[in-house]
Design a protein that fits this description.
MarR/SlyA-like; DNA-binding; Arc Repressor Mutant, subunit A; MarR family transcriptional regulator; WH-like_DNA-bd_sf; WH_DNA-bd_sf
Length: 140
């Protein structure tokens, strides 16, 4: 096999593994925590931000959804049926709002992170991932 074929085979292997991880993670998150993979990412990004809150524009850049899709997603997570997030008014700019992680959201995230790690480790080790990514880098 030439370098181009090796590159594509490595890429397709990574892509297939990622698809399996995403599909299984989505299923586990829905069953155990009633959240989607995108909602899991929202909880994670907010948990890593100062004061565990982000403006929707900041979150939109990280999640990669349109403004309206992200607004619907966050509204659902702020609703009483989910309760993982809550709105917070921006003190610097009253027009801006933040979405903030609640205790329930933090609890869901901590448990979901354990399940996420279990799924990832089921399909690949960190060493395998690093080797695969390094082999792709060598092809550029």
């Amino acid at each position: 096999m030439d370098n181009q074929e090796t590159f594509m085979e490595d890429w397709l292997s990574i892509d297939t593994t990622m698809s399996k991880v995403k599909k299984e993670t989505e299923s586990i998150l829905q069953a155990n925590y009633n959240i989607s993979l995108k909602e899991f990412y929202v909880l994670y990004y907010i948990s890593k931000s100062p004061d565990k809150k982000l403006r929707l524009q900041q979150l939109q850049e990280k999640i990669g959804l349109s403004q309206s899709a992200l607004s619907r997603l966050v509204a659902g997570m702020e609703s009483s049926s989910c309760g993982a997030l809550e709105k917070s008014v921006c003190t610097d700019d009253r027009r801006g709002t933040y979405t903030k992680l609640t205790e329930l959201g933090e609890t869901k995230l901590k448990k979901a992170l354990q399940d996420f790690r279990w799924v990832v480790e089921k399909y690949l080790s960190i060493d395998d991932l690093e080797i695969s990514l390094n082999s792709l880098k060598g092809e550029f």
